[in-house]
């Protein structure tokens, strides 16, 4: 009789940290249900299948209520318990708050915050009923500092870190654990999509997404509450953020994220 593999759900899985998280699950004995809005998720799924996982793809825009419901309906249709979920989908938008379009800022809130709360609300009752489950929520080292010229994004990641830590405490006697993943600047398409190619942070060397995902996966499976993931530089930044005053952190973020700072 074939052994039944546990099922993991990964959002934002077409590239970057999300794809690398899905790869970690595939290489460690999980089947996958992966989500992204873009068509690249189909090619990502093919690469994940090469690692031996059964992979189901759900293309849906999680920035919409219907998109999250579509994803959860597909999860429910598997009739399999979700052993692990990486709620990773997210977006950013660089630039001054006064200059950015409201629609772009609202999408950050809709995707980063609202969809994470919505999907957690759907998944967690099922996990608690099974007395088993692990949830990884992708926050950021940005959650620890005021985000000058990235104001809504940093605030969204602060929400996610607080949300993850609160859920972890609420669920401590249920058999379900919640882990906050806090990467630093990572070599993905994030900064280009956020319009930050001309910034210092957009041009500086970045962490390997595979290393970030490995740190996050290991923390999740070890049932740790949070992990600052990536390079030693990022981990040192996490330590420094605990002691530096917000005024200095905001000024440092300005130097990194202000438009034109990379010229």
Write up this protein.
With 263 residues, the protein is of the alpha/beta class. It has a single domain, classed as Rossmann fold (3-Layer(aba) Sandwich). 48% of the residues lie in helices and 15% in strands. It is built from 10 helices and 7 strands. A 7-stranded parallel β-sheet has the order 3-2-1-4-5-6-7, sandwiched between helices. Strand 5, helix 5 and strand 6 form a beta-alpha-beta unit. It is globular.
**Proportion of strand residues:** 15-25%
Strand order of the largest sheet: 3-2-1-4-5-6-7
Largest sheet: 7 strands, parallel
> What's the pLDDT, averaged over the residues?
96
Looking at the overall shape, the CATH architecture is 3-Layer(aba) Sandwich
Query: Fraction of residues in helices?
Result: 40-55%
Determine the structural class based on helices, strands and strand pairing. alpha/beta
List SSEs in N-to-C order: EHEHEHEHEHEHHHEHH
